[in-house]
Write a structure and sequence with these properties.
Layout lengths: L5 E4 L4 H10 L4 H9 L5 H9 L14 H13 L3 E5 L4 H16 L3 E5 L3 H4 L5 H8 L6 E5 L6 H9 L3 E5 L13 E3 L1 H4 L12 H18 L3 H5 L6 H10 L6 H15 L4 H10 L9 H18 L3 H8 L3 H36 L6 E5 L7 H12 L3 E7 L3 E7 L6 H6 L7 E4 L3 E7 L3 H18 L5 E4 L1 E2 L7 H7 L14 E8 L4 E3 L5 E7 L4 E6 L13 E12 L2 E13 L4
Parallel strand pairs: 1-12, 2-3, 2-4, 4-5, 5-6, 7-8, 13-14, 17-19
Antiparallel strand pairs: 8-9, 9-11, 10-11, 14-16, 14-18, 15-16, 16-17, 18-19
Helix pairs in contact: 1-2, 4-10, 5-10, 5-12, 5-16, 10-12, 12-13, 12-15, 14-15, 14-16, 14-17, 15-17, 16-17, 17-18
Length: 579
Amino acid sequence: MKKQLHWKETACDEEAANRLHRLLRIPLVVAKILSSKGLRDAQTARLFIESRLTQLDDPFKIVNMHEAVARVWQAMLRREKVFVFGDYDADGITSTVLMVHLLCHFDIDVKYFVPRRFEEGYGLSRNVVERAYSESKPDLVIALDCGTNSTEEIEWMRTQQTDVVIIDHHRANRTLAQDLLLVNPNVTQENCRSTLGIFCTAGLMFKFSHGFLKHGRQCRDPRAASYNLKGQLDLVTLATIADVVPLVGENRIFVKYGLTELQHPKRIGTQAIMRQAITEMEQPLMPSDISFKVCPRINASGRIADASLPVEMFLSNDAEAADRMAMELSRMNAERQRIESEITREASQMVETHYPECKSIVLFNDNWHTGVIGIVAGKLMQRYRKPCVVLSREENDMAKGSGRCVSGLNLVDLLSKCSHLLGSWGGHPQAAGIGMPRENVDRFRDAFEVRVSEALQIVNAGNDLEIAAWVNVADMHETLMRHLRQLEPYGQENQQPIFGIRAASFAAPPHIFGNNQQHFNFTLTDGRRNIHGVAWHMAEYLSEIPKTFDAAIRVNNSYWNGNRGIQVELVDFRTVSKS
């Protein structure tokens, strides 16, 4: 039985929508979408539509950016040894590549280190620091996508006469040193959520690079003028999409131009991974192509092996070597998919057998692979529309894993209210890493359920379906598509609009397809016009669809044999409403 969602039409300022429709000469449907985003005057709406790189703000508005740039510039002038520490996910990997690439361009002596997940744990751990220092002692350490909560490790490095710069976006869960050189708007900046706190670390790295180049130009260093900053947007885009940060403001600009860089990549390593992941490069790239096909390959080695492989691939100037590494990442990703599929099947059975009525999901299994359970948590969250934590056993009888959260709830806030049961935790409102003593799992499950239930009394998270506007099939034409494309790229907090069609029906029996018969194709009619469509992962609900029904759909361009057409995607259905 399909879960019933509450359909509600997105509120908008009708007067503003009519004004935008008239002044910008755009379809009223599109004007309503812009108005619902708070873009009510023509100039602001036009800036959103255009989204130019010239709209990027001054990087030095970020707290401590001046100081971080100055310290790294000093390392260049003094010919100091610099160590860069990244994390093992796509954001940490790409941030590491961006920093190493920048420092090498300025002839700085740099080495990078990413943690070996199963031996050294997450981020700036003592184990990875000791491995690095066993080779030599640096003058400066730069920690990327980690370090905000690594108080003990940073203090130890300071005892070794090493300065530390941290560029990170994770929230703090402990008291930080007052003199910490931390570039992290989520910790250091007021009102960060609506302005600077949206960046992933690779986005902050782009801002750092921008600031470093501005400083270099002021110092009349010719290397600053020859550095291709725009060319780094391929990696910034990969991380921004992979980390599911809000695709608004500057992030949306990054991804808009970064998708173009990925479509025609100049970086040898990017060329290699794109050849492996994308078979139809002549079609416009979408964020979904990146999130489903490219990012899992980048993450694969960190999940089941050593995350240094994709770093080496992106830094490589040897096309053949980069291709070999990209092929190995594809092999690892296939193995990751096999493991993940089996765990997802087991976890789904546990949910449906033991916790069908719970408002949240907390699962533990001694034998689950810790490298993939974050993906499993995400799949369970999407399937059951509930906050989900999936855990496995690690050394010292610790339970470690990942959580994913539905839109409308903040996972970090929920975990903070259960922190007395946790050994470690941290992340973002929608995703977090979690660790606790094994004996605390059952108590945590109960406490988490209470906190989620309390939060759901305030918001109806996961149950609302936002309808941008009600339309007819006849409205689905190329002119509308052209204007809708101006709202792209879509992602977190800039979701692709969902439209409603009243009293629709299938013009012919749908065709079920897919390896597991999960999907179906259909022709939708509203009694006047027909349009072709697809329903992903909905074949099991086909028998529940009435003969005449209200359809919630997304409208997309489809590409076949070099031709572009229009196709709708069925998102949900309900009995015909009288309203």
